[in-house]
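Students often ask what a holo structure prediction actually looks like on paper. The answer is less mysterious than it sounds. You provide the chain, you provide the ligand, and the output is a string of discrete structure tokens encoding the 3D arrangement of the protein together with adenosine-5'-triphosphate.
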Amino acid sequence: MGAAGGDDSSQWDTESLGGAGQEERIFVSVRLRPLNERESLRNDVSDWGCISNTTIIFNKSVPERCLYPTAYTFDRVFGPDCSTKKVYEEGAKEIALSVLDGFNSSIFAYGQTSSGKTYTMRGVTEFAIADIFDYMQKHQDREFVLKFSAMEIYNEVVRDLLSPDHTPLRLLDDPERGTVVEKLTEETLEDWGHLQELLAVCDAQRQIGETSLNEMSSRSHQIIKLTVESSAHEYLTAGNTSTLSATVNFIDLAGSERASQTSSAGTRLKEGSHINRSLLTLGTVIRKLSKGRIGHVPYRDSKLTRILQHSLGGNARTAIICTMSPAHSHLEQSKNTLLFASCAKEVATRAQVNVVMSDKALVKQLQREMARLENELKNAGALSGNISVSLLREKESLIEKMDREMKELIQQRDLAELRIAELLSTGDAQASRLLADSDKAMGARPVKAWMDTCSASISLDVLDPNRVDLDLRINSGVDYLQYPGSTGGPFMYDNRFSEHATEGPKFKGSGPNQVGDENTQMDCRFPIETETSEQVQCGEVKRTTTTIKDRKDGTLSPILEETKQVAATAVPENDNEQPILNEKEKEVETLMQKIQQMQKAIDCLMGFQEKEQGSASHEIKGSPKTAILARSKSCRTTLVKHPSLDLSEKVEEDEHTPQSESGIWHRSHLSLSLPAMKYSAQIEVKSSPNELEDVFSSPETNFSPPTRHSRKLSRQDSRKSVLSVATDIRTPRTKSSANNGGSSITRLSISEFKRLRREIIELWASCSIPLVHRTYFFLLFKGDPSDFIYMEVELRRLSNLKDLLFDREKSTGVGQTVTLTSSLKALNQEREMLSKQMLRKFSSKYRESLYRQWGIDVKSKQRRLQLARLIWTDTDDMAHIKDSAEVVARLIGFQDPGQGPKEMFGLSLLHGAVPRRSKNWISSAASVL
Ligand SMILES: Nc1ncnc2c1ncn2[C@@H]1O[C@H](COP(=O)(O)OP(=O)(O)OP(=O)(O)O)[C@@H](O)[C@H]1O
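The corresponding structure tokens follow.
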């Protein structure tokens, strides 16, 4: 251990000391005193010897040696011949003088009674204080203040050794300084002489008693505290200096003793008991600390450990000098001392420089700190303001740029879609030519007449841009070829032949085509040529399962019969046409891929824009995002209104066979992939009016369900437009024949529509949604492409509402607290209201018919209420739902629900909400979502 405080260059350089907050082990040394006169007289032998500066060994001549370790190593070991000066220099000085650097420090003397603790500590204390005086002498640039105090802990009572008053002192817990002794006398040490006086007072005051082992046995623990405060003169005059303040403790513990050895009794015995108990606590604390502070450290179990808490593993540098008697008679006590020393050397402390600031300096420093913080705040504010403004501008320009790009992409996509439609629509010419060529080759009839009866439409599924639904229809009246598609999905290849048509397409049959055969495998190819003649395009209807139906009378129509024959004949492929076809396929593929890429970019841009604009709530997750490009190339309508056609009902009956009973509505699904392509052609685009017939018409009741509102969503909302573009492109030929009635608008996936509607209906029931809302929604949305958006929104709103209802009472954000119970209650009230309306709105005759229809006894009590409570209850029965909607619609007066636009479905789902129109149904819906 080197001398601390002696090196001027490092006195005030706390960092160079490396002790600021750094962990440091307790410095443990052992001092072995010589056998004293008494021991020598007893012919006691010395059991211990020091073999080096750090190792003490047990005397091998003693038989018990085998029971104990024979060698102990410590930071320093001092033999019997070592002077106290050396013990101080090498075992305590550095620690003691670190007080001059602002570190608290403690020097302990621990050992059995009469082992030389007092002898050692007296010397160490004097040497240390002498060095401190010396240091002060050498550092006139600083002003030092030494404060001396002393106390003893006698029989677990703290006493002031500098005061004649032996009143026990209280221990106080100070949050900063730890345990402090209240009213402890503190003398400012003036000089060496003063120190000697004070030490003498302490000696005089300390409890000393005679035991058989020590004539002057210390019966108490003595703690001498020397607090060193220092500050530089130059700063003192400026009034803003900080002061280093630290305390060094010189602790002379009472010695552990055996009553049998000390022959103590009475007072001595009691003293010894307290001494041993407090030393036991000290040993426990040291042992616990040596194991890494695991668990509770019982500092408060004794006043000694409580007062010395900081010195034992806290903010202090600590050195322990363990004193030992070498006498064989004290072997047991010596071993205990060495055991204690072994534990102590494992204990770590964490000393920090203690700086005390003067009030003036403190005020000045606080002012500086405040100014600095204010400055930082200003800078931060200015910086963040600048950042916010620039960030905002950046985002705005980004949004504008994205908007432009998005519009461009949408335009390109639309053009691409139109291009494909154009290619396909003009394909009939090519098809006619090729078919005619083929027919000529096989002596068949010209195909032009047949082609005039054909229709084709193409549907682009934006959700799955790889898919293009090609809808080819050949009208035939009652006879038809039906291509349900390999999967039986909703998109079917529609192929109807006109009764009067004389020609049909060429089929390359791959299986037997017997009259009346069903599920015949056929390979059907439709070569299509572009009108622009820029490139040749080919659409190919892949291998499909063909169902051939007879006339009612069991005979085949001529065209059907001929077609079947043609199909069975299997025209050989024209090798010359194949490259052309491939080229066309490639172009279509290129177009489709371009569309796909553009759509992705649009979606990406819009998604990002919404995110940027904080309008993510408008996003409709899981939306089918299906865009339709339906194009008729037929001179006749391809979707003929049939009196018995109720598509929605048919769909309900069989999801996997989307063909009408009459079989006049079929589609074929054609999937094509197209690479990117740039378009510049200007193609006239015209939107067709929505001409779908009301699939919910109810002939029995003459009820007029809502007519279609405009299916076309505003282009102002580009997202909406992307989601629900429904464009019908007609060639002049189509236009000229449009008045034949019907429409070529292609419906979206009916199974998807059904799935959504079913989910919605179930959620209506789960959430006890008002029947009026259900009715209006049910009647207004029937599967039109644009309906999907509304349905997705409705589904999402309902899902969220269900989460709310089934979770716990939550505010809906509209000032209402909705629970499942309250919804149900409101629903019951609505049913009661409807039952009352029945009396006013329905004639008794009609009511009776309703009772009978709904299986209610016409003479039973509360018949109207029964009916009101029956409607909208069976979510699985679509007929029930439809009838329920009809009843409610009549009661509420939805005579022309079509006047109520779809936009009204931004209204609240909650009971009591008055249906109203919303200017922006999406934002309204978003508020609920
Ligand atoms: N290293 C030493 N060299 C010579 N004499 C010593 C040494 N250590 C102690 N002594 C003597 O041994 C006797 C007991 O010493 P001291 O009183 O310091 O023991 P102690 O540990 O303080 O005992 P207690 O715990 O009973 O107070 C004293 O007379 C002292 O002078």
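The longest helix spans residues 359-425.
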